[in-house]
Structures are given as structure tokens and as C-alpha cells.
Amino acid sequence: MKKNYKPESLMMSHGYKPELSEGSIKCPIFQTSTFVFKTAEEGKAYFELAYGLREKNQDEELGLIYSRINNPNLEILENRLTLWDKADDSAVFESGMSAISTVLLEFLKPGDLLLYSSPTYGGTDHFIHDFLPKIGVDAVAFHPEDSQEDIEKILAETGKADKLGLIYIETPANPTNSIIDIEMCNRLAKKYSSEDHRTYVCVDNTYMGPVWSKPLEIGADLVVYSATKFIGGHSDLIAGAVMGNAELMIRVKTLRTFLGNMVSPHTAWLMLRSLETLKIRMEKQSQNAQKVANFLNGHEKVEKVHYLGLIDEESPYYELYKRQYNAPGAMISFLIKGGEKEAFQFLNSLNLIQLAVSLGSTESLAQHPQTMTHCAIEPKARERMGVTANLVRVSIGVEDAEDIIHDVSQALDTVK
Ligand SMILES: *Cc1c(COP(=O)(O)O)cnc(C)c1O
């Protein structure tokens, strides 16, 4: 009987055949633009499959053609990525934004309505408000505290609820760790789907990362990642990924072929290395984060800590947290007593933790959302999402927990 190995056991080997690469234990970089066909007939057969001109014969595989269409580094990486989210297929992109914009372009058409959760990543927010209107797509937002009833009211007010094409959510949300019920979004999608149009649910799972939550298992149609964050995990690459069922992934990959925004072989190769340590990195990061959050919670210079591992069992969000996530993750934000001055004093006094945006990497990073990642958001909306002058965001890395706490502690001590 074949054992079902866990993803972390398969990240070193899955999908790679050493005999096709001179016995090399590791997959080499296939730094090539094009692939040689054995015969013209073979080239013809590959193109027929790649362009969907006919169905696959039994046991027929799509052969390698050209690196915009397929490449061994991308294919092996995609096969491995699907294991974490239990997806039929995945597609890797040159950035998280190219993964997200490709999904929005493929699953929305002129006249459609997009429902999205606020706060959303700044780049996504910009694409929704500055680009989508140019192709006739309207968007409306809801907030983590809105009930299904509230959201139905919001949709009704647009007068376009019957045109709801996509529900796009970010949970946990950046930077406050607010969480959204994916099952509720599935119910909404079902309710607004009709015979001639389907409403899809897409989850940006970047902030939690792939190990601790599986939105596809909960019923979402698509998951997107900025692979720059936990998946890459070393602050040395920019990439994105989309996962979903076979039927939807054919659409995503077809659009990717013609937008030409696939990841490069070299970046895919770096990500193959990253995936080997994904689980142990994220385990350590989450354990460290819980310790740092415990330290911050109740510190005399700290007003409030936003961390999933601090949600009280009495809180209405506790049940949802337990249902959707297996660990609290590595992202913390907290309100320092005071305002921008005190927040900056803290950030400027950090020694071990680096002052930089981005997240999910091996090194701990800290930043000030109001004046950095979330600076372009309209002030009223920003206030409503809890991004105030005294909010600091920290991404916890794999360093020694006591060392991280020591750095946070001494930096807080400098705040007057
Ligand atoms: C960083 C990020 C993105 C964008 O990803 P890039 O790789 O920078 O293009 C999208 N969503 C979330 C939640 C992010 O944190």
C-alpha cells in the first residue's frame, strides 16, 4: 500500500525525475527559452494540446514547447505547491500582483460587480479602483465585522447584485489580523449565482500563508498568494501563485500564457529551495510570534495587540479562528501608547528586527502601516480599519525568540 506522505516529506522530490537530468539530485535551472521537438509530428501534437485544439489521448502529457507556455522548473514547482492547499493545479506568476490581477481579469467582465473585503492589500485596492472601472467593472467593499445580512444590504444598494461575478477576500487581513468567514462567502456566492452566471470566491491567503489554512477545503474556488512572503520566505524574490480546481486553473493558465506574466525559471528554482523548509520555517515563526505577542500583551507601553493567538475563548471570533486556522501565524500588529512619534521612536530603536515592509521572511521585519504600506488609503477608511498613527506591524522570523523579545523590550524602553 502506498503511504500518503505529508507535503513537507515530498518537497524535496515530488514531480522531479533525476534520470531526466543526468542523475542530478536537485532539479537544475532550465534557463532556456525554447525546447527541441524530436519530430514535426511531436511539435504539432504538443501545440494541439497547448491550444486546446483537441482532447488529450489516454496517458498523453503536454510536452515542453516554449518557456512562456511551460518549463520544468515551473511545472515541478506548481506540482509541489498544490500539495499544501490540496489543489488540483496551481500557476506561478512573476509577482503576487500579477497573480491577483490575472484572476480579476479572468473572472470579471464588463458590467460585472466585484465584492471585496476591506482592508485589502494596497496594490489590489489600486487595481480595483483605478483599473477595473476602465473595463466597466464596479466594486463594492464590506468589512470584517459585517454580517451576511449587512453584506446582502450592501449588494442590494448597488442595484447590480445579479451581476456579482467575484467575491474577493483577504483573511486574516493586513495589518490588523481581522478574520472573515469563508463559509459565509460561499453561501453568498451560491445565493447570487444563477443558471447563466456563477459567482466565484477567491481568498488572498498571503497573510497566514499556506501551511495553517486551506481555503479550498473550506469551499473557496481560488486561492492567491504573494509568494514573495512565506512561500519564498527569504526576502530574495518576488513571485505569486494561484490555486484551484482543474477547470478554473485552465482559464488562469491560458490568460497567463497570453499576458506572459509567468515566473522566470530562476525564480521558480529559488522557490523550489524555499518550499523544502516552508513547514519548519512557519512552525518556528508562529511559535516565536506567540511568545512575542504574549510579551507585548500587557506591557505598560502597549495599548492593544492584534494577534490570532490572543483571541479570547469568549470572543465571537474564537470559533471562526479555530474553524479556519490551525495556528495563529507569524504576523502581529500592536498599538503603542502615544502616536506617530512614539511609534517611530520604537521602530528607530530596533537593532535585531529590520525596519522594512514585506513579511513572512526568515528575518523579523517591522514597519508603520499608516505612513508606509497603507499610506495611499483614504484617511477616513484607514481609521475605520484600525490603521492609526500608533499602530506598528511586526513580521516574526526564525531568530531565537528571547533575542526578538529582548530587541522589542529595549526598543519599547526607549519610548518616552
Ligand atoms: C505583498 C502582498 C501582495 C502583493 O504581492 P507582490 O508579490 O508584492 O506583488 C498581495 N497581497 C498581500 C496580502 C500581500 O501581502
From TrEMBL:
Cofactor requirement: pyridoxal 5'-phosphate
Entries under InterPro entries matching the protein: Cys/Met-Metab_PyrdxlP-dep_enz (IPR000277), Cys_met_metab_PP (IPR054542), PyrdxlP-dep_Trfase (IPR015424), PyrdxlP-dep_Trfase_major (IPR015421), PyrdxlP-dep_Trfase_small (IPR015422)
Domain of life (superkingdom): Bacteria
Sample GO molecular function, one term: pyridoxal phosphate binding
Keywords, in A-Z order: Pyridoxal phosphate
Chain positions with N6-(pyridoxal phosphate)lysine modification: K229
Pfam families per the UniProt record, alphabetical: Cys_Met_Meta_PP
CDD domains the UniProt entry points to: CGS_like
GO biological process, one term: transsulfuration
Any one of the GO CC terms: cytoplasm
Coiled coil location: none
Family under the similarity heading: Belongs to the trans-sulfuration enzymes family.
Entry-linked NCBIfam families: PRK07049.1
Protein name: Cystathionine gamma-synthase family protein
